[in-house]
Amino acid sequence: MPIRVLHVITTLGRGGAERQLVNLVCNTSAEEFEHVVCYLTPPGDFAAELQEAGIQVSCLDLPRKWPWLFAPFRLIPTLRKHKPDIIQTWLLEADLAARLSALTRSIPIINTLHLTTYEPETIRAGGWPRWKIAVLRQLDRWTARVTRPLFVAVSETVRVSAIKRLHVPPGDVRLIYNSINQETLRSQPGDSTQLREEFAIPDSSFVYVNVGRLAPQKGQSYLLHAFKQISVEHPDTYLAFVGDGPLHGELEALAHTLEISERVRFLGRRQDIGACLELGDAFVFPSLFEGLPLAPIEAMLKGLPFIGTRIGPMQEIVTNRENGLLIAHGSVSELADAMTEIYRDSDLRQKLASSGKRLAFERFDSAMGLRAWEQLYRDVAQRGIHDTLGPVLTPR
């Protein structure tokens, strides 16, 4: 009998955690593992793709506010129906939902940790109410203490934060890096040319690309201010944002205020990420905090030179001036200087692109991540959560 894993995730929108889930359930051994996916609230962008791959998917249709509070009413019947060997959760609200639903059950729970949620700089950068985070932290700690899940962090930065802020025993927190299925980045010849035509970007222009949710923690307002300086000195430069989010309108308005809107393109939420990356000459990612971002790794795989911020997870990926440029987060001047240097120095672009691509292939190809997850499932199913201790690293 295959090991049955029930995945619980907040939504199936096009975010990093959601993409990791899709990659995992669609590419692990079908003979060894059977996956079922349920998500708490819409959107369900990836639902059709999962169903086409033969994965059972259901939406619990819970209220968007505090969905974990109502989750047991829908999730407990799901547990009874599917009788999973393992519950795996993705993102905090799904963590809480599964723990509350399994309080009286002996099903092993694996919680994937994607962010340094309780770090002061994360709370500050996200603009989250401190009282709300304090309540969530206490609930997180209490439900974790009662249900004793096994945690899997996506980076060493996230792992250390969980041990420190949630008081999780170090042996209960594994490390498996995010990984990328390179097939999802493939595009057809001419796709990027068509994108330039569609969004009126001249063939001869130099394009900076940013991929990510349009949200405060992604630092895109700083990027617009930096690009303002670049655009004055270099009239052949353009800036393309790929993604959507709550700041879409605000960022468009800022581009208009800065008088650069004719050189800034908002491509929206897209499935053709590979073609969007091929559109660019450099990738810029001024995020204020991350767990382990996928977008920079995808850009490296596509051969783009990379500019990012000196935050913990980025420093796990990038060595400054060897395979990318790292600048202080929130610094418009440093960001503008790095963007100017990338624009002017073709030798530097080639060096960073080549080194970054080699690094991404060696450390973040999905085959390594899948092997680590499959072995973890076997260990948990055979020996249980608490006999499966000690950090597990994705092979390098």
Structure description:
With 396 residues, this protein is an alpha/beta fold. The protein has 2 domains: 3-179 and 365-387, Rossmann fold, CATH 3.40.50.2000; 188-364, Glycogen Phosphorylase B (Rossmann fold, 3-Layer(aba) Sandwich), CATH 3.40.50. The chain contains 16 helices and 13 strands. The protein has helices at 16-27, 47-52, 67-82, 92-101, 120-126, 130-147, 156-165, 191-198, 220-233, 248-257, 273-278, 295-301, 312-317, 332-344, 346-364, 366-383; strands at residues 3-9, 33-39, 56-59, 86-90, 109-113, 150-153, 173-175, 206-211, 237-242, 264-268, 282-285, 306-309, 325-327. It has a 7-stranded parallel sheet with strand order 3-2-1-4-5-6-7, sandwiched between helices. It has a 6-stranded parallel sheet with strand order 10-9-8-11-12-13, sandwiched between helices. Strand 2 (33-39), helix 2 (47-52) and strand 3 form a beta-alpha-beta unit. Helix 3 (67-82) packs across helix 4 (92-101) and helix 4 packs across helix 6. The longest helix has 19 residues, at 346-364. The two termini are 31 Å apart. Mean pLDDT is 93; it is low at 391-396.
